Each structure stands twice: as structure tokens, then as C-alpha cells.
């Protein structure tokens, strides 16, 4: 398959990121590597979307800290960025709503065909282009060959974004469009998909009665699709067979097979918080040093519960 006929993919990961760990970044890297090996996909970007403060999880530190830690964790990446939209809403957003938001915004600014385009979304889209002129300006930027510069600009400017109020929505849109405009999109892009990236623990949660709305699961798995990075010893096939929604949409679920068998336990934010609270030197196995430095400077998690 040529690059123009492959499905171009953006990986979206939702979660607390409380704090973000080396494992979270590892999931992105392994997913991209595996999807490229299939010969069917080209991963052009990754998005980390931390959950809203009102999620109510015990020990969840304010989003301004979680956003900063995420930005520090990906500051050297030229394809993964942190998106503050979910944190900046009035209240907690479902995973389905976050996916729909990014789908709607991506479709508007790229003009590519995205998954689930026939289903109207009720989620607000911050800073959408309001006329064709803005969209055309964006599309002309696709010829630019300065992706690393754009990524660095996003990283530097987004660090101070939390301090901006009245123009925050506009800046989010401008930076988002500038970042997307440097994706490696071909002149003819037949399909662009946003796939939910998750661990097998989220896949297991789909099987818990009443935890997810059936309609949301249908949209997430059926319309968008998910990429699952298994944790050690988890039988993803058994999990998928346990849920009628997962069984029905098996073709939309990609399970990352990793021959190297890297320990996905380093994804655990819980273990990293416990290590911090106990002064365990093994915290360096879980967290990037820049994240550790920020945590210590801000005195996070030291006396936190959960």
C-alpha cells in the first residue's frame, strides 16, 4: 500500500494522568510502531487528554498540575501533544464526548473523511473556524515543512496557557490548527481516523455492567475504534469475548502485540504515587526526571491519598 492509500491515524489517550508515567508514553510509541508494521496505517499524531477536575477520583491533583506534568513528559516528542480542552470544560466529559470533539475539530480543519462523520455531535467545539477563509488558510499550511518547529512552538506556548483566561479558547484553536497543519498528511487523504489508545484495564472496564453507557460503547468501539496495549498476563481475547459490544466490533479493535514483552506495569500512576509517598528510589522507573522534579517542587502526592 502507498502512503496515500493507508489510513492516517491520530491516537487519543484519555485518563487522569495523575501523574503521567513513562508507561503512558511507551503505550503511544508501541502502538505507533505496531500500527506501522501492519502496513495499513500511518500514525501522524498523538493526543493526551487529561480528565476534568470534577471527575472526583480520590487524590486527583488539579488539572493545571497534571497538564504541566504531561507537557514536561512529551516535550521531546515531535508527534505527541497535550490537549487542555477536556480540562477547560465546565464539568467532566465522557470519553465519547472527547472523541467527538476531536473528530469534529479535525474534520473541520483538515477536510479529510473521519470516522463517525454521519453522526451529529452535541459536544461544543472550541474555536472552530467560522468561515471558509480560515479553513483555506489552514489547508495552505499543509505544504509547510517545519513540523518540529511547530511542535516546539506548541510546547512553549501551551506551558503558559493555563494562565490565560479571556483569550484561552482562541489560542487553543490557533495552536491546534498550527500543530495539525504540520502533520504528514498527503495531498489526497482518503481517510483520517481518531483511535482511542488504552490499556487492557480500560478494555476490561467495558465488561463491568452499568459502568459504561451502551450507546457510548457503540460509538467508541464501533464508530471510532480502539488500540489496546495489553498489560502483563492479561488475556485480551477473553475480555473481548465477554462483551457483546466488543465481540460485535472486533474488527475495530487492534491489540498491540509486543514481542519484546516490555513490562506495562510502569503505566501505573498508583504505583508511582506510592513510591513518591514512601520515598522509594524506584520512582525513577515510573516517571521522567522532569516530572519528578516538578512534583517535588510543587509538593504533589507527598501526603495524597489513593
UniProtKB/TrEMBL annotation:
Pathways involved: Cofactor biosynthesis; NAD(+) biosynthesis; NAD(+) from nicotinamide D-ribonucleotide: step 1/1; Cofactor biosynthesis; NAD(+) biosynthesis; deamido-NAD(+) from nicotinate D-ribonucleotide: step 1/1
GO cellular component: axon; cytoplasmic vesicle membrane; Golgi membrane
PANTHER family: NICOTINAMIDE MONONUCLEOTIDE ADENYLYLTRANSFERASE, NICOTINAMIDE_NICOTINIC ACID MONONUCLEOTIDE ADENYLYLTRANSFERASE 2
Species per Swiss-Prot/TrEMBL record: Hucho hucho (huchen)
A single GO BP: NAD+ biosynthetic process
Membrane-protein topology: Lipid-anchor
Residue stretches making up the Cytidyltransferase-like domain: 14-105
Protein name as annotated: Nicotinamide/nicotinic acid mononucleotide adenylyltransferase 2
